[in-house]
């Protein structure tokens, strides 16, 4: 085999130094002088150098106060969560409702369909065994329903925003059930509910 220049000889020596494992220390010292800097690189040196992340982005810098979050970052109703409260959560069911007339049912004139986008109200049925209507404390926010009785507690994050001032609640003593009807707030109400 014939070599065409000094660089080919150096490359072969570098390759043999990488592949041989049975060399003496004297050979290593002698070969290390002949081996170029590129031959000492390994697979970890392939590609661009790794990025260093010494700089902290501004979004993670805390203010001088000792709060670890801002008030607007909290989920609505999280201040009602009490992990030490032993009262059980009652059974509940959420039903979406829409007003449908004969023109919708037979002729389809209003363009409503059975999807949740065409629903106007949300009915929340809550079973409250051994409870009187006077024992129920109900607080409704835009995205959260809070119900408290002496024997039960329910903190329910609602699946859709509602009009918190418009709604009604009715307690049925014979079924021991509370029905809360809430009108839903939709961004496209003017389009979906004509």
Automatic annotation (TrEMBL):
Family annotation (InterPro entries): DNAAF6, PIH1D1/2/3_CS-like
GO cellular component terms attached to this protein's record: cytoplasm
Origin superkingdom: Eukaryota
UniProt GO MF annotations: dynein intermediate chain binding; protein-folding chaperone binding
Record domain PIH1D1/2/3 CS-like: where: 89-183
A Pfam cross-reference name: PIH1_CS
Transmembrane residue ranges: none
GO BP annotations, alphabetical order: axonemal dynein complex assembly; flagellated sperm motility
PANTHER family, per database record: DYNEIN AXONEMAL ASSEMBLY FACTOR 6, TWISTER
Family: Belongs to the PIH1 family.
Protein name: Protein PIH1D3
Organism field: Betta splendens (Siamese fighting fish)
Lineage: Eukaryota, Metazoa, Chordata, Craniata, Vertebrata
């Amino acid at each position: 085999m014939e070599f065409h220049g000094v660089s080919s000889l150096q490359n072969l020596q570098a390759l043999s130094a990488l592949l041989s494992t049975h060399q003496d220390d004297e050979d290593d010292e002698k070969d290390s002088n002949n081996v170029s800097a590129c031959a000492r690189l390994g697979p970890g040196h392939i590609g661009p150098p790794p990025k260093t992340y010494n700089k902290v982005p501004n979004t993670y810098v805390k203010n001088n106060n000792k709060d670890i979050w801002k008030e607007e970052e909290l989920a609505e109703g999280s201040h009602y969560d009490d992990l030490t409260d032993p009262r059980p959560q009652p059974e509940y069911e959420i039903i979406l409702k829409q007003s449908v007339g004969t023109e919708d049912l037979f002729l389809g004139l209003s363009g409503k369909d059975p999807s949740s986008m065409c629903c106007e109200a949300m009915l929340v049925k809550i079973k409250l065994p051994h409870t009187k209507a006077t024992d129920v404390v109900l607080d409704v926010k835009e995205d959260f329903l809070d119900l408290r009785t002496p024997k039960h507690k329910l903190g329910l994050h609602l699946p859709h925003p509602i009009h918190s001032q418009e709604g009604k609640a009715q307690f049925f003593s014979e079924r021991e059930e509370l029905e809360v009807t809430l009108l839903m707030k939709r961004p496209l109400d003017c389009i979906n509910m004509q």
